[in-house]
Design goal:
58% of the residues lie in helices and 17% in strands. The protein is of the alpha+beta class and 328 residues long. It has one domain: Up-down Bundle (Outer membrane efflux proteins (OEP)), CATH 1.20.1600. The strands form 2 sheets. Strands 1-4-5-6 form a 4-stranded antiparallel β-sheet, with helices on one face. The protein has a two-stranded antiparallel sheet with strand order 2-3. 17% of the residues are buried.
């Protein structure tokens, strides 16, 4: 099916651009798969799931951040000699901090597994959306053909009623029938014309429904071609039980639902990591510049050099009571 779509797609775009011919069933299905909004949304969901895998794997990486702080103190404040004085002071701090997760309670690997399961479900939902749109387009296409055929039948009936009215009029002029037969023929012609208009409206509404499935912006010249008599369709005769078993095995909607259940199970494992302790490594570098009004302060560069400091350590977090968040 995908190979046929790839072959027919360039020709389909040309046909759509010039509006030179009516749309075939294959062209309608292929165009709908390419432009239908529901399929595009499912495709966007699949792409979002791919990004979630990348985001989950990024949790293995360390985080690095820089900081800068500037403060002013007017009036009584703490000096560099750790005494209080009535002087204006300024303080500038610069530095960077590094945090590296050493053990996060298995949260990251389980997040990666959950993201992969979600991607598998999203891809099946994407294929299921294609199947649904294909079936809907085929049903709408056949509905257009059916209503058009009914319109042609109604139109032919109008011609027959018109002929019958002219025949009854000739018989009335010849005195062969009473006038009531002519009135009945006129009434029948009026009813057949009404039926023809209703059939025409049904046909045009069916065309609009099909155009909406295709997500067409302009449907003024939209029309479809009848099914070719030479088209061959493979018919497999199977028992209902076998058809049902094949559907459970191959149907994309069923497979997507199963994968969604699997993803939900993996997310339960992610939630349970809230019970597990975590360990992280952190390091920092920084310096500061300090001035006091009315005093001889060292230069900015000299203070940054003299006040330079580094630090590192390990942080162990043990969950004791989290207000039942993990349990819930």
């Amino acid at each position: 099916m995908k190979t046929r779509i790839a072959i027919l797609l360039p020709l389909l775009f040309v046909a759509i651009t010039v509006h030179a011919s009516a749309w075939t069933l294959d062209s309608c299905v292929n165009y709908a798969i390419e432009h239908n909004i529901d399929i595009r949304l499912r495709g966007a969901d699949a792409e979002s799931s791919r990004l979630q895998i990348t985001q989950a794997k990024s949790r293995y990486l360390p985080t690095l951040s820089g900081y800068a702080n500037q403060s002013w103190n007017i009036g009584r404040g703490l000096t560099s000699q750790n005494t209080y004085a009535d002087r204006n002071t300024t303080n500038t701090s610069l530095g960077a901090q590094l945090n590296l997760p050493v053990f996060d309670g298995l949260n990251t690997p389980r997040q990666v597994e959950y993201a992969k399961a979600s991607l598998a479900a999203a891809l099946e939902q994407f294929e299921a959306a294609k199947d649904d749109v294909t079936l809907n387009v085929m049903a709408a296409y056949l509905q257009v053909l059916y209503t058009k055929e009914l319109y042609e039948v109604a139109k032919h009936q109008v011609d027959l009623s018109d002929f019958e009215l002219r025949r009854q009029s000739a018989l009335l002029e010849a005195g062969k029938i009473p006038e009531v037969d002519l009135l009945e023929a006129e009434s029948q012609l009026a009813q057949d014309k009404l039926n023809m208009e209703q059939a025409d409206n049904d046909w045009r509404l069916a065309l609009v429904d099909l155009a909406q499935l295709l997500n067409l912006e302009d449907i003024s010249d939209f029309d479809i071609a009848p099914l070719e008599n030479s088209q061959q369709y493979e018919v497999l005769i199977q028992m209902p039980e076998q058809v049902y078993a094949d559907a459970l095995k191959h149907n994309h909607s069923v497979r997507a639902s199963r994968l969604a259940v699997d993803a939900a199970d993996k997310y339960i494992k992610v939630a349970k990591t809230g019970y597990i302790p975590s360990l992280s490594f952190n390091a920092s570098v920084g310096s500061n510049y300090y001035t006091v009004s009315g005093m001889n302060n060292e230069s900015f560069a000299r203070q940054l050099k003299n006040n330079y400091s580094t630090g590192f350590g390990l942080t162990l977090s043990v969950p004791i009571f989290d207000a039942f968040q993990t349990r819930n």
